[in-house]
Design a protein that fits this description.
Helix content is 43%, strand content 12%. It has 475 residues and is of the alpha/beta class. It has four domains: 3-128, Rossmann fold (3-Layer(aba) Sandwich); 134-195; 207-369, 3-Layer(aba) Sandwich (Rossmann fold), CATH 3.40.50.300; 375-441, no CATH class. The strands form two sheets. Strands 6-8-9-10-7-11-12 form a seven-stranded mixed β-sheet. A five-stranded parallel β-sheet has the order 2-3-4-1-5, with helices on both faces. Helix 5 (134-144) crosses helix 6, helix 5 (134-144) crosses helix 7 and helix 7 runs antiparallel to helix 8 (189-201).
Length: 475
């Protein structure tokens, strides 16, 4: 529930609110002023009590002050999560709810995390205090730059996108640094993005993808490359899902999209979101989804999808339903993600992924299948890595080197071994055994499953490519 609706809730008689935010001062400026400016039917206005530990160390006294205050008084308690589960606090709030409601009083917890005791879980209204939106960021831009300076509208939009996901204090501090870096001639977008990456990394739930690899580093798969380029800039684009044997460059291809399209890239690991404490996993998932929403246009990589969502199809009896609840939130997010949020997933297997996670509607298409490279692709991959390692390919190497059932990663490993040990490719081949041989049954099953359920990532003879041939992506 948006925090801006708090006045309507107050008018309706609600008395307990939990407002999650890292910006208490912005709450004071925006929410306090909005409440104070509202004139009730009796011609009077609400009164506000602002409590922090610096003013009164005992939170119970703050609650008692609310009880003793005039009708239509609201207590804002900052960092109240430190005390919310203490028995005397829980009991006092429970006892006072009827009286506070009768007198038009309210208690608002302003905290960075939701920590509502189970005894009060039905009484609190959850309110979202969103990070700065476009208008607020533009206000900060004008506050930082001198009055006589002007920034083109197109550049302003780029600055706004870079600042999304930051608190107002972070926005203004980072804008100031970006202005200094450009010596007062504009805002350095790279500086803003670097700080934003640091801020995101500090959450521990998301990783920022650096635009290091491009499509040129992933040989073949022109079908999927062109599909991405044709769709990703459409604001309604949702993203793609890829499935294939290990080592077929699925993750590298997804990371390359960041460099090719200029999207701000994030990677999420469900393993980092799970906690042994009940309720904390739900909170982390919510924080991560809220952060992605606040960042706005971006690419989100969910790697090894089948592991991330393992157990989502169970009845929840093994972990009190934690996995089911967490993955259900992601399923809702996949269906109704904000415009501009492009999600890409990779999976080495279809086992463990419920069908509803793969169907079109969650993604822009059915899953793409990245199979083991063809002989033609393997030759190009070999040439690519030999060139990087400054290794000369011997004559007839393509015929003499078996590279039987090699994936692209195994061709790379072959060249790496030859370069590291200063041996020939023939000798290096003795050190590489293809995963497709050691896991032949599972890969055969994967290929059989993919036949009528997926789209080939590589254009195949006799099959018209998805793209219109706008760009030669068979690199």
């Amino acid at each position: 529930m948006k925090a801006t609706r708090i006045v309507n809730y107050l008018r309706s008689g609600f008395s307990l609110f939990w407002m999650s935010t890292f910006e208490p001062n912005r709450v004071r400026e925006n929410i306090y002023e909005m409440i104070k400016s509202y004139e009730r039917k009796d011609g009077n206005q609400y009164k506000i009590i602002d409590w922090t530990m610096a003013k009164e160390a005992n939170p119970l006294k703050a609650l008692q002050e609310l009880t003793a205050a005039d009708p239509f008084t609201i207590l804002f308690a900052h960092n109240f999560h430190w005390f919310s589960d203490k028995p005397p606090i829980v009991q006092y709030i429970q006892d006072m709810i009827p009286q506070w409601q009768a007198q038009g009083k309210a208690f608002v917890s302003v905290s960075p995390v939701e920590k509502i005791p189970v005894e009060l879980s039905k009484d609190f209204v959850l309110m979202e205090f969103n990070l700065p939106d476009k208008d607020e960021i533009i206000t900060s831009i004008h506050r930082v730059m001198p009055d006589d300076s002007e920034i083109p509208n197109k550049e302003v939009d780029q600055i706004v996108d870079s600042c999304r996901g930051l608190t107002r204090a972070e926005v203004e501090a980072t804008l100031s640094l970006a202005w200094v870096e450009m010596e007062g001639k504009g805002f350095d977008i790279q500086t803003i993005n670097e700080y934003k990456a640091q801020a995101i990394m500090k959450t521990g739930f998301l990783e920022v993808l650096q635009p290091i690899v491009t499509f040129a580093d992933v040989i073949g798969y022109g079908n999927i490359k062109q599909f991405v380029l044709d769709t990703i800039n459409n604001p309604k684009a949702k993203g793609i899902m890829t499935i294939g044997p290990p080592g077929c460059c699925k993750t590298t291809l997804m990371k390359a999209i960041v460099a090719e399209t200029g999207k701000f890239g994030l990677s999420v690991s469900m393993g980092n979101l799970f906690s042994k404490f009940q309720g904390e996993t739900d909170q982390r998932v919510k924080q991560t989804i809220d952060l992605i929403r606040s960042i706005g246009p971006c690419l989100v990589l969910i790697d090894e999808f089948e592991k991330q969502f393992a157990g989502s199809g169970s009845d929840g009896s093994l972990d009190s339903g934690t996995t089911k609840r967490a993955t259900s939130k992601w399923l809702d997010f996949l269906q109704d993600r904000p415009d501009g949020v492009y999600i890409v997933g990779t999976a080495n297997s279809f086992v463990g992924i419920p069908p509803e996670y793969l169907r079109p509607g969650r993604w822009d298409s059915s899953p793409f299948f990245l199979d083991l490279p063809t002989d033609r692709m393997k030759r190009k991959i070999l040439e690519h890595y030999c060139k990087k390692a400054d290794i000369k390919i011997p004559k007839k190497a393509y015929n003499l080197l078996l590279m039987d059932k090699y994936s692209g990663a195994e061709v790379e490993a072959l060249v790496h071994i030859a370069s590291m040990r200063s041996i020939s490719l023939y000798e290096a081949e003795k050190c590489v055994i293809a995963t497709a041989k050691t896991s032949e049954d599972s890969i055969t099953a994967l290929r059989e499953w993919a036949k009528d359920r997926t789209i080939p990532a590589e254009a195949v003879p006799g099959l018209k490519a998805i793209n219109g041939g706008k760009r030669n992506l068979d690199v």
